[in-house]
């Protein structure tokens, strides 16, 4: 007998759970797209996007997903034949590098595997070797959604500065913005990309690119940008349609306007960062306890290198895929598939999953997902250590006490 009836829980790393308030804000007729309310909303959203990035920089909004934001950042910064250094710590760092290569950028890759963050010392060494300063930018992910590794952005900036290199620092924050602490200006980031469907709690469909004055100046010589991807009219619009390269994404804007109000003016970023950290520790505690009695392990061994928005884990002998299917069919909980951890079609590919704890998520949602996971392991006879839920509950109690 299935017990999946009732409201399902989508615990994948985007689209994340959307607040009812955001959905309600979107549930109204489209406005006049030429003037009036839409002008006020567009200007307010742009200003609040700078606030959520902790930045006074410029911001461009695209009707696109994160892949579109990647392409926009590449098109504006580079000319064909320019060189970039890409720090690859998982599937999404790999794909951003491949996107740049496909568009005509010569990409030098520093590979750090699937279980480790980028090493600032290696970055500094690579930049010191570039004596002609041919590398125009360093590309990195803050959180790689596939491996759940969290890179130290400030340390990479320090490595660039230590090498006395003029390269721009470009950071993918798609899986971290609104979840993990991020300070664009303080950390010396020149270009940052994100999307609407994760920590910002809005349906997929909007991509964002923030860029510094240094990046703006670099973009003036780019020969790769096309009219749609050009960030100049979007960041400095004279008419409201220029924010979006055409017709406004009206209902996404309604939702984003509401979610940014919740993030910035109600809960506040410092509390959001603490909440995500506490929920992440609960997930880690459960897996660490389960792993004491079975073939289960977190992908990232060092807690300081783990994302606070998503956790990648391994359950051996195909246990991850069996558990994922059981949870969706029998308990109404959907976990994320493993991405890039093993070759598709191999038996090892069924050993990986991801648990998202990003955006509009609280203690009972996280504990509920973990409890159903433990029930699934019992039902499927997947060996695991006992007491995982008690360990997770203990971390929730600590998190509340420390808030």
UniProtKB/TrEMBL annotation:
Task: Spell out the InterPro entries in the cross-references.
Answer: Aminotrans_V_dom, Aminotrans_V_PyrdxlP_BS, PyrdxlP-dep_Trfase, PyrdxlP-dep_Trfase_major, PyrdxlP-dep_Trfase_small, SP_NH2Trfase/AEP_transaminase
Instruction: Tell me yes or no: is ATP-binding among this UniProt entry's keywords.
Output: no
State the coiled-coil residue ranges: none
- Segments forming domain Aminotransferase class V: 52-344
Pfam families in alphabetical order: Aminotran_5
Asked if the Swiss-Prot or TrEMBL record annotates the protein with the keyword Plastid, the reply is no
Cofactor requirement: pyridoxal 5'-phosphate
Sorted alphabetically, the keyword list is: Pyridoxal phosphate
What family classification does the UniProt entry report for this protein? Belongs to the class-V pyridoxal-phosphate-dependent aminotransferase family.
| Protein's name in the database | Septum site-determining protein
Organism of origin is: Thioclava marina
Task: Give the lineage.
Answer: Bacteria, Pseudomonadati, Pseudomonadota, Alphaproteobacteria, Rhodobacterales
């Amino acid at each position: 007998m299935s017990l999946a009836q009732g409201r399902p829980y989508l615990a994948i790393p985007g689209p994340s759970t959307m607040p009812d308030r955001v959905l309600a804000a979107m549930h109204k007729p489209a406005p006049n797209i030429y003037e009036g309310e839409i002008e006020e909303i567009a200007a307010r959203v742009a200003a609040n996007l700078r606030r959520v990035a902790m930045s006074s920089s410029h911001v461009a909004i695209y009707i696109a997903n994160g892949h579109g934001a990647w392409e926009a950042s590449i098109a504006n910064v580079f000319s064909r034949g320019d060189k970039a250094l890409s720090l690859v710590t998982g599937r999404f760092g790999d794909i951003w590098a491949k996107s740049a290569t496909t568009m005509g950028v010569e990409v030098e890759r520093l590979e750090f595997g699937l279980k480790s963050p980028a090493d600032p010392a290696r970055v500094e060494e690579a930049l010191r070797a570039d004596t002609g300063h041919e590398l125009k930018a360093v590309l990195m992910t803050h959180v790689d959604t596939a491996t759940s590794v969290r890179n130290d952005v400030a340390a990479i900036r320090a490595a660039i500065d230590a090498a006395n290199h003029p390269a721009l620092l470009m950071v993918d924050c798609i899986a971290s913005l609104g979840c993990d602490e991020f300070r664009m200006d303080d950390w010396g980031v020149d270009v940052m990309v994100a999307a609407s469907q994760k920590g910002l709690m809005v349906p997929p469909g909007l991509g964002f690119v923030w860029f510094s004055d240094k990046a703006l100046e670099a973009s003036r010589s780019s020969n790769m940008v096309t009219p749609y991807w050009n960030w100049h009219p979007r960041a400095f619009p004279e008419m409201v349609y220029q924010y979006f390269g055409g017709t406004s994404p009206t209902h996404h804007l309604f939702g984003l306007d509401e979610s940014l109000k919740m993030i910035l003016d109600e809960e506040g970023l410092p509390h959001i960062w603490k909440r995500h950290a506490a929920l992440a520790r609960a997930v880690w505690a459960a897996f660490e306890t389960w792993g004491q009695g079975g073939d289960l392990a977190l992908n990232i061994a060092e807690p300081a290198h783990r994302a606070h928005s998503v956790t990648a884990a391994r359950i051996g002998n195909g246990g991850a895929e069996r558990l994922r299917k059981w949870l969706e069919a029998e308990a109404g909980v959907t976990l994320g598939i493993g991405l890039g951890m093993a070759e598709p079609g191999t038996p090892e590919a069924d050993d990986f999953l991801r648990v998202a704890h990003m955006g509009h998520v609280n203690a009972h949602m996280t504990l509920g997902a973990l409890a159903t996971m433990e029930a699934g392991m019992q039902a499927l006879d997947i060996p695991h250590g006992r007491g995982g839920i008690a360990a997770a509950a203990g971390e929730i109690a600590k998190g509340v006490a420390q808030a």
